[in-house]
Amino acid sequence: MQVGTLILGAGAAGMMCAAQIGNDCLVIDHARAPGEKIRISGGGRCNFTNLGCEPDRFLGENPHFHKSALARYTQWDFIDLVSRHGIAWHEKTLGQLFCDHSAREIIAMLRAEMGAADLWLETALRDLRHDGTFVATLDRQGQRVEIRAKRLVVATGGKSIPKMGASGLAYDIARQFGHRVTDTRPGLVPLTFPDGRFRAISGVSVPSVVRAGDAAFEEALLFTHRGLSGPSVLQASSYWREGAPIEVDLLPGSDLAGSLRTRRKEAGRRALATELARHLPQKLVAHLADEFDLSGRLGDLSDNRIDEIELALRTWTLRPAGSEGYRTAEVTLGGIGTEGLSSKTMESRHMPGLHFVGEAVDVTGWLGGYNFQWAWSSGWAAGQAI
Ligand code: FDA
Q1: Which pTM was predicted?
Q2: pLDDT band of 164, cuts 50, 70, 90
Q3: Is 20:113 a contact under the CB 8 Å cutoff?
């Protein structure tokens, strides 16, 4: 069988790409349903883009590569599309846009936009070669089918959540056609600590600024029985390297030292730990009491000691043992080296007619709708060129 374009992967980027092509396009996916990550994203409401989708909110070896696609198909274009389909949405926080009702509406919208494009589910790629056209041997629900395609778009995503069908297929195909693949690692992932260090305070959530490398994120931090999670930690995890420390400020926007000085005059007999529980959850204060010697009464604190306590709580340095890995990571950092791709069309510089889009490419966004926007923009860019 012959098609103009074969798209591997009916996820966010693959469907968006197919929506630009329509006719003479076949999309295959080994899953039972298209857009499974869209379905489970954002707690079932899909954080589909971000109002502040600026290029500096993306990681990758080349900090400029993603600019072209993101500028040509912007968050406003996707908001337009969503609104045209009558999907109700709202801004939750920090520019993050979610469906009011269900992520399934985004999948249905993309399916509708795909128009005449064919979609084969439960279909796996068994072999791929190029002899002037791409020749893909597929296993379609147990049946062997050979497809010849002038163009091939690889949209099979990264390695995160293998249980949902994530595979390294895109990287294998990239290498087959002479592309470099950077080191990959889990991103937007909870960090782990040995010996159930935070088990006693698991479930406690606090405002925080978490720093890793040069990056700092002010959002909520969540203690879990395995370690640390919550948006500030997930964000920082993308900048964290094995063996490195992270730094946690537990007092963003508050003047603890000033408050302790005032309270020392007003309530000198009060225990320091009791006073701190006005600023931080009591369970957390109890957990920190030994580490930072939070014993004694307010009246006994010198100015220096007050400053020391504030500094300790603002620069709590922790060394994660690792991360929860691809099992729970929202994204894969790294991927297909961008030097081998056109930033305008996502086409291979090694093999004309071959395109790579979405998470498989070495472009990774922050938490908050940025990764879907990259999938929409890169899928759109390839689809337009085809
Ligand atoms: P995607 O993973 O969407 O699609 C790849 C497709 O290829 C899948 O359908 C898969 O089945 C198929 N495939 C893989 N290997 C194959 C093979 N060997 N043969 C055939 N088919 C194959 N981002 C965001 O911006 N906002 C959010 O709210 C969230 N929330 C979120 C929650 C969770 C739990 C996760 C894991 C991730 C997110 N993300 C997110 C990230 C976002 O889901 C991700 O960046 C995009 O889905 C990437 O789109 P792609 O199309 O590149 O890959």
Answers
A1: 0.97
A2: confident
A3: no
Element (H, E) at 169: helix 169-176
At 72, which helix (H) or strand (E)? helix 67-72
DSSP 235: H
Q: How many CB atoms lie under 10 A from the CB of residue 245?
A: 13
Pocket, ligand 1, Cβ cutoff 6 A: 8-14, 29-31, 36-37, 40-42, 46-47, 124-125, 155-157, 160-161, 165-167, 169, 330-331, 358-360, 369-372, 375
**Does 290 have pLDDT greater than 90?**
no
Residue 79: helix, strand or coil by DSSP? helix
Ramachandran bin of 203, using left for φ above 0, alpha for ψ from -120 to 50, beta for the remaining angles: left
Q: Are 69 and 343 in contact (CB under 8 A)?
A: yes
Q: By mean pLDDT, which of 113-122, 127-136, 158-167, 362-371 is the weakest?
A: 158-167
Q: Which position has the token pair 């297909």?
A: 336
